[in-house]
Design brief:
This protein is of the alpha/beta class and 434 residues long. The longest helix is centred in the first third of the chain and has 19 residues. α2 packs across α3 and α6 runs parallel beside α7. It is 46% helix and 16% strand. β12, α14 and β13 form a beta-alpha-beta unit. The N and C termini lie far apart (84 Å).
């Protein structure tokens, strides 16, 4: 990895380079995606089947597009029992964490007869997209479905691409069963997003779509937003490790590589105040690279978006970490909790030597669907609230409205909305005329 002295110029250059990975910068694919969406919206199943044959190389039909109970049983038979047990334990942790996020409807009443409140209800349906290309991620199934199930969503639909023989990754199907998916359809890409956004003869329309995918999936979610709710437009994975001289260089190197292996666009950044640590981490990365199975992907990721930044002070390091607003942030310092209080922007924060990033990816319980490309400045991890809708409740008595009607009428007339003012004043016209 390149070792760079942290300055204002290097910070700006790195931020500019990282932001170029955003799906918003891949406009050359938008026309292709728009055409697929229009086709699916117009022609339904026919378009979905044609796209599946073209991109996934198998002849899907209305009879074969939905995963059957027998296929799920096959999947359980194909997965070792130990892995099934691990998924069940992870699911329990994820469920327990997200249950703490549940909120109740509330009502506030006042002596003058006014009533204000908020009614909180789950969405009726949600859809989850699960990739099936270079790798399959059962963990993403758990992370997308369990919060929706905890929220009380009545129907959860999943789409995931099948291989050329029409088979779906068995780990994906097992995770779907454990998490509580109601219906699974063998379709991927932009056509899957369009099918869930608008509905087809086989695939039902949903209220919200969540889940990661390639650039075509990301752009399809962006294009369908408004017809359907989405979680976010996810960019490539990223990790930032904030470390001082007390950090273990072997741990830091291993953790950086854990995200670099996702794809060539993933970013891995170490910010440290110690030059010796910087050199030691770089040395450990070279050692690990000799044995890791995804060496070529990791190397491209590090060449393009890997940095070791040496800061003059921890204050400078923290300022840069907040500017980058990384998806995953690890704090490997003498007092990680003190540093954590100064971190304002991060998708998830991992504290100390034994809280490596994969703990959050798979097992601890907090969601691993996190904001990327600096969006942690204004977005949050996927959570139960994402599967809820809130309705305001307003009820005033005559006594309560009498105290406020002049104020409301003045506000409305100043905005030139006389019908608004009339809607209130008409309730007191008898008194005004007397």
């Amino acid at each position: 990895m390149r070792i760079v002295r942290l300055t204002e110029d290097t910070r700006k250059d790195i931020l500019d380079r990282l932001l170029k990975r955003s799906p918003n910068n891949y406009s050359e694919y938008e026309t292709v995606v728009a055409d697929i969406i229009t086709d699916v919206r117009t022609n339904g199943d026919q378009a979905v089947f044609a796209c599946t044959k073209k991109f996934d190389k198998w002849d899907v039909t209305a009879e074969t597009i939905r995963v059957t109970a027998a296929e799920i049983e096959e999947a359980f038979a194909a997965i070792e029992e130990e892995f099934v047990m691990v998924m069940n334990r992870a699911a329990a942790n994820i469920k327990a964490f997200h249950e703490k996020q549940l909120r109740n409807s509330w009502i506030d009443t006042r002596p003058d007869g006014s009533l204000l409140g908020q009614r909180i209800l789950p969405l009726a349906t949600s859809g989850v997209y699960v990739p099936g290309g270079k790798a399959a991620y059962p963990s993403s199934v758990l992370m997308n479905v369990i919060p929706a199930r905890v929220a009380g969503v009545k129907k959860i639909v999943m789409t995931t691409p099948a291989s050329a023989d029409g088979k779906v990754n068995p780990g994906t199907l097992v995770a779907a069963k454990i998490a509580g998916v109601d219906e699974i359809y063998k379709v991927g890409g932009a056509q899957a997003i369009a099918a869930m956004a608008f509905g087809t003869q086989s695939i039902p329309k949903v209220d919200k779509i969540t889940g990661p995918g390639n650039i075509f999936v990301a752009l399809a979610k962006k294009a369908c937003f408004g017809y359907v709710s989405i979680d976010s437009i996810a960019g490539p994975s990223e990790i930032l490790v904030l470390a001082d001289e007390t950090a273990n260089p072997r741990y830091a190197a291993a953790d950086l590589l854990s995200q670099a292996e996702h794809d060539e666009l993933a970013s891995a950044i170490l910010i440290t105040t110690d030059e010796k640590l910087a050199a030691a981490v770089n040395e450990q990365i070279e050692c690990f690279l000799q044995t890791l199975s995804r060496k070529e992907i990791i190397q491209k990721s590090l060449d393009n978006y890997g940095y070791i930044l040496v800061a003059a002070s921890m204050e400078d390091a923290i300022e840069t970490a907040n500017a980058i607003a990384s998806e995953h942030m690890e704090i490997l310092t003498k007092d990680p909790y003190a540093v954590m209080t100064k971190i304002e922007n991060a998708g998830a924060i991992f504290l100390g030597d034994y809280s490596s990033e994969p703990l959050g990816d798979y097992y601890a319980g907090p969601n691993h669907i996190l904001p990327t490309n600096g969006t942690a400045k204004f977005f949050s991890p996927l959570n139960v609230d994402d599967f809820m809708k809130k309705t305001s409740l307003i009820s005033y008595s005559r006594e309560a409205l009498a105290k406020a009607h002049k104020d409301i009428e003045l506000f409305a007339t100043r905005e030139g909305l006389t019908a608004h003012a009339n809607s209130v004043s008409v309730r007191f016209e008898e008194e005004e005329n007397n």
